[in-house]
Amino acid sequence: MMQLCSPKRRLFFSKKEVDPDADPHGGDDFIEGGKRRCTDVLFLLAFIAFWVGMLACGGYGFTNGDPALLIMGTDYEGVLCDEKGTGVAGTGSGNVIDNSGLKTRYWANFLEVAAVARSAAVAATTPSFASSSYTLADAKSMCVSTCPQPSETAGQVTWFCDYPESNSYAAQLTKEAWKTKNGDVYSDLTDAEKVTSLQLKGPCYPVLIPSVNTYFSCNYYGNFSQSSFDAFTALSVSGTTGTNFLTDGTYSSFASLDGLVESINSQVTDYIAGPMERFQRYIDDFIVAKNVLGMAAGACLVLSLAWLVILRYFTSLFCWGTVIVVNLGSIAVTCYLALYSGLIGDDQISGIVDSTGLDSTELNASSWVDPASENEEVLKACTYVMAVFTVIFFIFTLLMVRRLKVAIACIKVSISAFSTVPSLIVFPLVPCVGMMLLFLYWVFAGVYLMSCGDQKIQTCVHPFESSESHGCGVETEWSRELQYMLLYHFFGFLWTTQFFIAVSYLVVAYVFAKFYWSGADKMGMTPLLTSMKRMPFYHSGSAAFGSFLIAVMQFVRVCMRVVMTGMKKIDRNGKVFAVVGYVIECCLWCCQKIIEFINRNAYIMIVIDGNSFCWSAFQALKLMIANVMSVAAINIVGDLLLFLAKLSISIGTAFLAFVMLNGDDYKEEISSPVLICSVIAIFAYSVAAVFMGIVEMGIDTTLLCYCRDMEKHNGTPQYAPEVLQKALGIAGEVQKAEEERKAAKAAAKAAKADNSE
Question: What domain of life (predicted)?
């Protein structure tokens, strides 16, 4: 493994060494030898091969899938409305079901819809429901051209019946005849079929409630048709009358037809209309507040730039202020706990005795109990812990004084580089667009893949032709091969997302490294474009390697979470699985964060030295261990400052939007400002995170460049920018070293000239 990752072996394909000035992709003056080479090319080839498989999976899904199966749902035969397909239920299994022209979905048996609301009552009387989770998606639905309506003629009942392709009617009915009669073929049934229909077991069902087309689904509304209900219960065939479902015990708790209709309507509304209506209302709010959204977008940009200016000129004040506040705060908390627990001064009992005016004898004789006295030992323990923390942090501060100077200087250098290359502000748009396109492809291809499964009737109820005929919906069954394809597709999304992030790290780190080693004067006209060409060209293999490690860890975490969820379902009351799951999840999360930290610094070292991923990760760890105090200081101070910046920008933008939305122009026009302000806060935090993320990468790059410079030049960073030199008080040493280097270079040049003569 070390041979594979050693920079000496360059195990992966390397570019032919050329003149840096002649190579449009090479020639970094801070790289040893001035030449870059392609790194970890085998992993780049593996990544490309993986994406060939991703495209193959997507092509299979686009060719064989139909997302409408997942989005719109199917009828009880597993066939989409307005399409032709092969039936899966009853006698229709294997037959071609022609739903052409039938675009709307209709739940024919309204009692099945009521069963969703009254699942407990149904489970008590219908064993087929007892072992399943019954939802509206499981109820029997059919495709219609128009939503059926109750008969307006007294004494008559409108019926809606099963497809002729899926029911062995005694009369030979065609689908065209069925369509012509709008599904009402009750008169063509035999007496036996009419009897089961009067029992609400099919193949025909009475239309007793009006319905309306809502998003291509018939939604029950209005009042129960009393005349149709009376006509239905008055019908009699072979001694069997229409079932009075209000008195059969199952639905008697509804007490009235209106109560039953209300329950049915709420189920259909919640299933197809409720979320859409709320979504539409929220969309309307955003449309009304479009000016506020535009203002918020501009405000978060202005605040982000303002924070960069503040960090640039007041970094020292913020850093030292933060350290002082933390020290004083820890001292104050320690003293407060000591006073409260009685370690300093009087304890709580003495304080309360004094405040009540009673002496200790009277107080002891009473039934009064001081809660603080019961927690006195806990408070003392907390005091000791805080005291230890205060002392440790104070000692840490004394030891970190010089390192804090380095941290402050690194922050200033990174922000200076940011101002030198302002195009860094818009660079995050590039990976964001790439990831957005990836996400769109992944979602569409994934939906098509998921819809490639076989449509099969669920087995949670009896067959349709049985006396307990209830629909149970159609489920999509995925073969093992399709499941593997979905897992492959999911892992590809994780890997590619991390690949985009890795390449972004390399591009940004190159700009800051160039600023450190070459200075602002030698950055070139378009340093960002140069970086965007060089880093992907030379180091995409390393990005593929590092991103693969993180993607594997993320995939393991997701799989582990799925496994633990399944275990919890097996033992819902057990606490062991929950505790074990949390521990494993915590450990995996920590491992992922460690890998991300190593990767981030490995990418910086790849930029600095141009070596392969493994060797760069090793060098980065070695540098950080050798300079652990400086690394700790800059991580603590830098992360805290940048978090405060992101938080203040987010809150400030959301507060400004809230003030505007509560003005007279918007107060009466929107349903609630909470959602808009929440979205604005998240958006502002994301924008701030983009800015501060670049600064954070600049800080880390500057720190590693500084450590590498120290290592190369015996403790004196000869290439440190002027800001860093002044902060460390080493400007004189650097100047002296520079003069010595120039003198040595001139002497070597003169010696070479003498030898040539």
Answer: Eukaryota
Contact 202, 109 (CB under 8 A): yes
Q: Count other C-beta atoms under 10 Å from residue 453's C-beta.
A: 19
In a domain, 170, yes or no: yes
Burial 125-136 (b: 16+ CB within 10 A, else e): ebebbeebebeb
Domain assignment present for 175: yes
**Bond prior to 24 in cis (omega within 30° of 0):** no
Measured CA to CA, the distance from residue 706 to residue 704 in angstroms comes to 5
Helix %, strand %, coil % for the chain, to 5? 65, 5, 30
Cα–Cα distance for residue pair 83/103, rounded to 1 Å: 8
Q: Is the dihedral of CA 646, 650, 655, 660 positive or negative?
A: positive
pLDDT tens sequence across 506-549 = 999 998 888 888 776 777 778 888 888 888 899 999 999 999 99
Structural domain total, the chain: 1
Q: Does residue 141 lie in a domain region?
A: yes
Q: What are phi and psi of 213, to 5 degrees?
A: -75, 115
Spatial CB neighbours of 177, under 8 Å, sequence gap ≥ 6: 164, 185
The predicted-structure confidence for 168-221, as pLDDT tens digits, reads as follows 665 577 888 888 888 888 888 888 888 888 887 778 889 988 888 876 778 777
Domain with 245 in it: 75-283
